[in-house]
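Input (structure):
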């Protein structure tokens, strides 16, 4: 059974191994922004804003492509994904837009590691803070503003589509009376006048054709009657009356037969 001293020795050895794994590489890089924590005042940054990360490459440390990582809390928890990767160590700066959604820690830090070997790294030891609440409040107020604006637009649209009853009832009488007088244009009125005149002429023409045909038919019947009378042999009395009628017509007097009829007997 292990004694307390043995357990304490094992814990100390484990701690030393962990510290050995987390030892920074000397003269790799030196952070200039964000500045190192001075023990009293922490640098503060706002979510959604940019942070200009700057560093000075070491003169004798390993060179190559590096990655920039965000760490959270006292345990230096690596927050994925990396801020940047594939940047050459000698570039010396990177402009980072702080995400609006991050795991919440009391403070954060940065480290730069060699892309090909994670054991070669340098830490900023800035222990800065990120204000996530201000961005959350801004997003919430924007959402509330857009919701109220949408509700107001919806209410305005419904009120516009449903006019008052008094306006609806008075609209037909006001719109129908002026439209009756102005519904016929000058061209339409001229067309109606021409049509009426043409109709009247057509009726007169039909009436004239009717009268002409009727007179022609009567003349034809009279001519046929005279032909029949001419072909029919007359008696002596009928021939005498016909001669008297012709003579009287020439003299402008009544024939004797008609004078006899007017007198009421034979002469």
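Output (sequence):
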């Amino acid at each position: 059974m292990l004694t307390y001293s043995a357990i304490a020795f094992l814990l100390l050895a484990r701690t030393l191994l962990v510290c050995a794994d987390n030892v920074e590489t000397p003269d790799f890089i030196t952070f200039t922004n964000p500045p190192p924590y001075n023990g009293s005042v922490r640098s503060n940054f706002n979510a959604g804003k940019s942070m200009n990360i700057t560093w000075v490459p070491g003169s004798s440390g390993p060179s190559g492509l590096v990655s920039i990582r965000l760490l959270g809390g006292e345990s230096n928890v690596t927050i994925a994904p990396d801020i940047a990767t594939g940047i050459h160590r000698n570039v010396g700066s990177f402009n980072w837009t702080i995400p609006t959604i991050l795991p919440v820690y009391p403070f954060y830090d940065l480290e730069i590691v060699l892309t090909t070997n994670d054991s070669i790294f340098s830490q900023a030891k800035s222990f800065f803070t990120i204000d996530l609440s201000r961005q959350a409040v801004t997003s919430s107020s924007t959402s509330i503003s857009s919701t109220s604006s949408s509700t107001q637009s919806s209410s305005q649209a419904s009120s516009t589509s449903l006019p008052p009853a008094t306006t609806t009832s008075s609209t037909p009488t006001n719109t129908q009376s002026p439209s009756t007088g102005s519904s016929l244009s000058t061209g339409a009125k001229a067309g109606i006048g021409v049509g009426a005149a043409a109709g009247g002429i057509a009726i007169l023409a039909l009436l004239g054709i009717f009268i002409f045909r009727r007179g022609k038919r009567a003349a034809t019947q009279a001519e046929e009657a005279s032909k029949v009378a001419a072909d029919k042999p007359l008696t002596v009395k009928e021939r005498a009356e016909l001669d008297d009628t012709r003579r009287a017509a020439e003299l402008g007097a009544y024939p004797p037969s008609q004078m006899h009829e007017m007198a009421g007997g034979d002469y």
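Notes: Helices lie at 4-21, 133-161, 165-182, 186-231, 236-251, 256-263. Residues 186-231 form the longest helix (46 residues).
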